[in-house]
Amino acid sequence: MQARLQCLSHTPLKGCFDPEAAIVKEVAGLVDTLRAEVEAFGPEVIYLFWPDHLNGFFLDLMPQFCIGMAAESVGDYQSSAGPLNVPRTLAEACAQAVVDAGIDLGFSYRMQVDHGCAQPLEELTGALDRYPVVPIFINSVAPPVVSFQRARLLGEAVGRFARARGQRALFIGSGGLSHNPPVPQMATATDPEVIARLIDNRNPSPEARAARQARTIAAAEAFTAGTSTLHPLNAEWDRKLMERLAARDWAAIDAYRNADITADAGGSAHEAKTWVAAVAAMDAACAGAWQAEERYYREIPEWIAGFGALSGRSR
Ligand SMILES: O=C(O)/C=C/c1cccc(O)c1O
Ligand SMILES: [Fe+2]
Question: Which residues of the chain have pLDDT under 50?
Answer without folding.
Answer: none
